[in-house]
Predict the structure.
Amino acid sequence: MPRLAQRRTPLSTRRCQNLTGQSVHRTGVIRRYSPGMTEALPDAWLSRDPLPEDPLSLLVNWLGEAFDAGLQPNPHAMALATSNASGSPSVRMVLCQKIDRERSCLTFYTHMDSRKGKELADLPRAAAVFYWSGQNRQARVEGPVTQLPDAESDDYFATRPTDARIGAWASSQSAPISSREALLQEIERTAQRFDVSLEDPAATVPRPPTWGGYALHAETVELWVSRPARIHDRAIWHREIAPEPSLEPSTGWQVTRLQP
Ligand SMILES: Cc1cc2nc3c(=O)[nH]c(=O)nc-3n(C[C@H](O)[C@H](O)[C@H](O)COP(=O)(O)O)c2cc1C
């Protein structure tokens, strides 16, 4: 009998199965052509011309369909890219809490003194991308970013569970901390300071002044849907937005079909 250590496949050639059944080498090299990319049905809206005039109603439909399909957790998760004053980009996931058709913006909530918050203070513009693997769809949104009114952030903060509200006070998001234990102690200390139990859903915890919402105003929207042989459907909508404080659209949407 070979000893266990001898039977083991060397790490460099071991494979694991990912969710779509593709073989992925632990080296990070994905060898198979991804079949999932070619199987999408033509999208009822994007596959024919003329293209729809309003990308935001399409985006709302797509997000709704991703939720209805129930194929992925957090279909409202989007990668949000910001940039520092020297033009160096950074990107992370956030949850889009609302696609606001009236204000033509996407809202998300975070710590304003985090890395992204500081970058948005320096350069108030962002780009976001959603990927819905079950529908083979991608949506990109770019534009100026503003802070939401305090009252709106207060309302949303109040809907969060007590431990998340305490956590928002206890965490200086993106700052270093010596250990996880130190973080947990800070959460305990914060709960004591507010004289609340983390398990009490009705506890009153105000919103930290440095935690709140942002609006990404949709200036450019690009929608993409996978089609066979990588001949994807892709279209971009753009409109001008007046500078702050108005941020009102100053033109209508111009739509252009793009090559895949
Ligand atoms: C699916 C998912 C959703 C997330 N949603 C949020 C969010 O809504 N707000 C937030 O501040 N961080 C969220 N995070 C954590 C961020 O990705 C990130 O770690 C954090 O905001 C700090 O980013 P920064 O240092 O670039 O500011 C989420 C992470 C994941 C994986």
About this structure: The domain at 37-163+212-257 is CATH 2.30.110.10 (Pnp Oxidase; Chain A). The chain is about 25% helix and 30% strand. The pocket of flavin mononucleotide is lined by residues 74, 77, 90, 92-95, 108-111, 114-116, 173-174 (CB under 6 Å). The longest strand covers residues 137-147.
